[in-house]
Amino acid sequence: MGFGMARKAAGKNVERACGLALALMASLVFAQASAAQESAPPEAPPPLSPACEAPAGDIAAPAMLPHFARALRERKTARILAIGSSSTSGVGASSDSKSYPAQLEAILEGAMKGVDVVVANRGVSGEVAAVTAERIKSEVTREKPDLLLWQLGTNDALVRVAPDEFENTVRSTIRWLKENEIDVVLVGLQYSSRFSRDEEYFAIRNVLQRVASAENVAYVRRYDAMRFIAQNHANLQMMARDNFHLNDLGYQCMAEHIARAVIVGVFAKRRPSGN
Amino acid sequence: MKTPTIEERMRQPNEIDFWRGFALVTIFVNHIPGIVFERFTFRNVAISDSAELFVFLAGWALRKLVDGPAKPLSARYLILRLEGRAFTVYLAQLVIAQLAIALLAGASLLLDAPFLLDWNNASAIFADPVRAHLGLVALTFQLGYFDILPLYVALMLVSPLIALSYRHARAALLPVSLAIWAFALAFGVNLPTWPVEGAWFFDPLAWQLIFVLGFLLAGEDGIGGLARRYRKPIGWIALPIVLLGVAAARIDFDPSPIALPEPKLFFVFDKTFLSPARLLSSLAIVAVFAGSFGAISRALPRLGAFLSLLGRNSLNVFCAGSLLSLAGQVFRFAYGGDVVSDAFIVMFGLIVMGAAAWASEWRERLRAKTSKEPAA
């Protein structure tokens, strides 16, 4: 695929995300109106911290998370499995409690009062998607999560996994997860100025975007959000000393952005639209 | 005990060494994610892969040792001998893990690429060295793709139990092994990893079963005898299982736990816990291809000899192969992954693995020769 086409596709995605965001705002009003009757009313996504501000379209292309929402509604507790590579395990963070899954748990519980969210961290640094996909099978069988956050792509791009092979892996795993009634949020590639012109990096990013929209799963556009922050808050240090991994603040933004996609996905359940 | 002669040490090409060599080459290719030639490895047409074959054949080799050179040993010396082997494998694991870490560190400096320090789960070594080094020697911290030898160490550690129960309570061996495997699957029991939170990639409690099956099938008695007597009919029964595996792999079929009864690990295709489908698939492959070595080595004698050479020196070749896979990953990162560079990686890998095997045997021969001469 040529760059022009890819850019067009990406543009379409942004439009889609904006449209979704508008629909979500409408559903928010509806949600708050009916919140009184609900047992566990999800509240509006908490505001982003100033450092983590980015346009909604750069943050995520959300999608419904029906199973996660149902678990919260019916059991008041939900399990999240955060799987992926170094950004999940928290390389660069000052402690385990600063990794994005740990921060996410706190954000979600703060935003949705009265519910218990358990986030298990199964990040293995440097792992490619095909190996994670193998781990997902046994981890899911054991952990029985309602929602799987799958952070992926960076390492596949770096070790030059063919985009079509990557696509097969991601698609078949998403389908398997759907059959098992587990919601998925794909968390995209890391931004690094070093790879802003790398074709393989671009191709893998493209595959993720395409698969997420074709399979109708939420996609956290990490690359775009990170690039926006890097370009607009140049004074803020989001990166660890190696200038590749995130630091505590970087992970905080990552957690806030993912939390937004998750909470919006819970609201999205209420939309009367199909699927 | 009689020391084996040089000829016995450098045994002729044979079926077990050949398939071990085959498994080693497959593992080498499979551990370079994205490489073009991965598409030609047999895991693309089966629901199991070379890991099962490797562990099965390790169990087979243990039986050959226990029935052969170690047969006259008393229990005490047998334990010593087998634990010595476990220690050798453990040392090999420590050495290749350290070399892998150095390879990543060197590549990250050379290519100015700090993210290489993450590859294969290595980041804890650099980010959390105090705990990671403890985990490294305790085998609770395993680099990605460097997770088979820890399993092998665990299996060799308990191998005296297998060998002694074979000597004194033969009938109990398979039932006990099956029971432990079933227990691991029923309750999802696995060894934890530390400091990186998680579990072993190969659960030793589950994988001991295929090791024990290799051990038992290598013998002339019990299920090994049965398998020999009914090899033809078993082959015919196994063939449709293998073909089903081909179909499942081609259409990417994988059962969904939600539709399955508890305990689900019995029904999914899971590698970590060696689920029944994977076990059956690998045993069926063994049954179908057992005995084909004769035809293969007649048709392709050089291939037969080469893979047997690798298989005869499996630990050293495995170590070389693991490091070559990692070097291949770095090479693909630095030079991109096209067919030509991938072909170069595979050719180079095969040559170095062959050289490692040759050097191992050369050393062996030298040692045998010098030990005969009087000390200077």
Can you describe what's shown?
The complex is a heterodimer of chains A (275) and B (376). Chain A has eleven helices and six strands. Chain A has helices at 3-34, 56-59, 66-75, 86-89, 100-111, 129-143, 154-158, 163-179, 199-214, 222-232, 248-268; strands at residues 60-61, 77-84, 116-123, 147-151, 183-187, 218-220. Chain A starts with a helix and ends in a 7-residue tail after the last helix. The relative contact order of chain A is 0.20. Residues 1-42 and 269-275 of chain A have low confidence and may be disordered. Chain B is mainly alpha-helical and 376 residues long. In chain B, strands 1-2 form a two-stranded antiparallel sheet. Classes of the chains: A alpha/beta (275), B mainly alpha (376).
Core attributes:
heterodimer, A: 275 residues, alpha/beta, 11 helices, disordered N terminus, disordered C terminus, B: 376 residues, mainly alpha, 17 helices, 2 strands, 1% strand, globular
Topology (SSEs and partners):
The complex is a heterodimer of chains A (275) and B (376).
Chain A: H1 3-34, H2 56-59, E1 60-61, H3 66-75, E2 77-84, H4 86-89, H5 100-111, E3 116-123, H6 129-143, E4 147-151, H7 154-158, H8 163-179, E5 183-187, H9 199-214, E6 218-220, H10 222-232, H11 248-268
Parallel strand pairs in A: 2-3, 2-4, 4-5, 5-6
Antiparallel strand pairs in A: 1-6
Helix pairs in contact in A: 1-9, 5-11, 6-8, 8-9
Chain B: H1 6-9, H2 15-30, H3 50-67, H4 75-110, H5 123-127, H6 129-138, H7 148-157, H8 159-168, H9 170-187, E1 192-193, E2 198-199, H10 204-217, H11 222-229, H12 231-250, H13 276-289, H14 293-299, H15 301-312, H16 314-335, H17 339-372
Antiparallel strand pairs in B: 1-2
Helix pairs in contact in B: 2-3, 2-15, 2-16, 3-10, 4-7, 4-8, 4-16, 8-9, 9-10, 12-13, 14-15, 15-17, 16-17
